[in-house]
Design brief:
Helix content is about 50%, strand content about 15%. Strand 1 and strand 2 form a beta hairpin. The chain has two domains: about 180 residues, Ribonuclease H-like superfamily/Ribonuclease H (Nucleotidyltransferase, domain 5, 2-Layer Sandwich), CATH 3.30.420.10; about 55 residues, no CATH class. The mean pLDDT is about 90. The radius of gyration is 22 Å and the shape is globular. Strands 3-2-1-4-5 form a five-stranded mixed sheet. The termini are far apart. The protein has about 260 residues and is of the alpha/beta class.
């Protein structure tokens, strides 16, 4: 019966996104987002779990922008988090950081425990896996999100993302920009603006009504990553269809008939 169910179920694609306090081992992955769907672009489901730093949000919400930055920077430094990350990024996105903390505070479980956060994420992966015959992991960089997620999953006793939740079955993963670069005929040697312009023209324009804001809220960023990947799949399918049709139109048999 299980084999029959797997035949009926579609393949699935799950994008993940994280936010961190910096690059060091003392730093914290404080937000994890996910977004999954089959290839249709019509059945996208997103979610997130965020770590609660235990900040006094009522007082912080009353502060002006400069006071917020000063207060959170002091907290950052006290905990030994990477100051470069704060000064170059989070100080410029301080309201987003505070919004993520409000999301964490609204969780139904205690998210001042990282083990609880990772447990929730692992349980969500189990539910997502159950929906598809094969789940593929999607990321927008092979050097960041999945690296830290694998570290956290292993640290808390769970299988990394390159395995299913049983830890017995290996699975595929894909990176959005590498996939899109190849699909558009670009290489890493090409000017990035050329690639970005082609991306917007050829891929992002597919199903333009389906979008997601990339705003560093983890579930939104994960959805944005997933949408770009699925649109690239559609672009590749259209190119393949065009080539097949072109080959048929110019086949020797077709030419003789004409």
């Amino acid at each position: 019966m299980a084999a029959t169910d797997d035949i009926i179920k579609p393949k699935g694609y799950c994008a993940s996104d994280i936010e961190r306090t910096g690059k060091g081992l003392v730093d914290v992955t404080f937000a994890i987002g996910w977004s999954h769907s089959d290839q249709s672009l019509k059945n996208i489901t997103s979610g997130q779990i965020c770590y609660d730093f235990g900040l006094n949000l009522e007082e912080i919400d009353k502060m002006d922008h400069e006071e917020k930055v000063k207060t959170i920077r002091k907290f950052w430094k006290f905990n030994g988090y990477e100051m470069r990350c704060f000064d170059e990024f989070w100080s410029k996105n301080i309201d987003t950081f505070i919004s993520i903390q409000h999301i964490a505070r609204s969780n139904v479980i205690d998210c001042e425990s990282m083990s609880n956060v990772i447990h929730v994420f692992n349980e969500e992966l189990k539910k997502i896996e159950a929906k598809y015959s094969q789940l593929n992991i999607i990321t927008d960089t092979t050097m960041f999100d999945t690296v830290w997620l694998n570290h956290l999953l292993l640290e808390h006793g769970y299988a990394p993302l390159n395995y299913d939740r049983s830890g017995k079955k290996y699975r595929w993963g894909y990176e959005t920009d590498s996939y899109a670069l190849g699909a558009l005929g670009c290489t890493p040697e090409d000017d990035w603006k050329k690639y970005d312009d082609l991306l917007k023209e050829k891929i992002d324009s597919i199903c333009p009504e389906i979008t997601a804001e990339h705003d560093h809220i983890p579930k939104n960023d994960a959805k944005s990553i997933l949408i770009r990947f699925l649109k690239t799949m559609k672009y590749c399918a259209s190119i393949r269809e065009y080539r097949v049709q072109n080959e048929q139109d110019h086949s020797p048999k077709r030419i003789r008939q004409e």
